[in-house]
Amino acid sequence: MKEKLSSEPPLHAYRLQLEPQPFIRVTGLLGFFQPAAHRRRMSEEELVKGEDSKKEQTDKEVEKLKAERKVKRKRRLLKEAAKADKRGVCYLSRIPPRMDPIKLRQILSQFGELERIYLTPEDPSAHVHRKKAGGYRGQGFTEGWVEFTNKVVAKRTASMLNGEQIGGRKKSSFYYDLWNIKYLSKFKWDHLTEEIAYKNATREQKLELELSAAKKERDFYLAKVDQSRALSSIDERLKKRHKIQQAAGSTSEEPQAAKVTRQFPQTKPVRDNAEKKKAGLSKDVLAGVFGGS
């Protein structure tokens, strides 16, 4: 009995064999492919995590770039606003004939650095009238604005040139003309653009109103024309029908329906009966009186 007991393995050995051991490589098919699938799954998870981390990094980089662009834009706008505060605008109430923005810039750039120039063109009807009269065929201007980089220079230039002769070459067409220039304090180029945009909008609104009024008049006239055509066609049809009736011997007038007059019995008034009764009584009484006598 002792030999038999010693030959059998102990109970803890069975427990070790029965318990699953996932980390031990087995020669079977299932045991051979499980670690490779596990490795494949781990590699896929690592790839997904790596892609997510890359996306997060790219998103952060994009946000940083956007923030940097916003900061740069703000700085640029602040610089432009500071420069715009230093600028000054002069107003020209009259532009000499044959003068354009290029010539005006050439003349005024001698007194200071210029930024922008705007000259309002003349009315097209005036341009056409001047052409027909045999005058200057180029574009004319009525008024203008000139922007200087420094408002001090703009103010000094306006005070120096206002009322003075333009000068230059004697052959120029505006040699004897005078400057009509004034410095506009606290006036910026943005105000001018707003004013021009407002004027353009009002002009467009007026044009739209005029066009709508013209369309209404046209529609009313066309409606009246159609109505008159319809009435004239009706008259023509009636005339044709009348001629046909006359040719057939029928009268144009339609027979009138006979008027029905109802007669009601009239009762005689009470006054007539009373007079007859009174007359009869009086005659009888007299006959009796005279007959009895």
UniProtKB/TrEMBL annotation:
GO molecular function terms listed in the Swiss-Prot or TrEMBL record: RNA binding
Highest taxon above the source species: Eukaryota
Region (Disordered), start-end ranges: 39-61, 242-279
Compositionally biased intervals (Basic and acidic residues): 42-61, 269-278
GO CC annotation: nucleolus
Subcellular location(s) per record: Nucleus, Nucleolus
Domain RRM intervals: 88-170
Entries under CDD domains matching the protein: RRM_ABT1_like (cd12263)
Main localisation: nucleus
UniProt family annotation: Belongs to the ESF2/ABP1 family.
Protein name per the record: RRM domain-containing protein
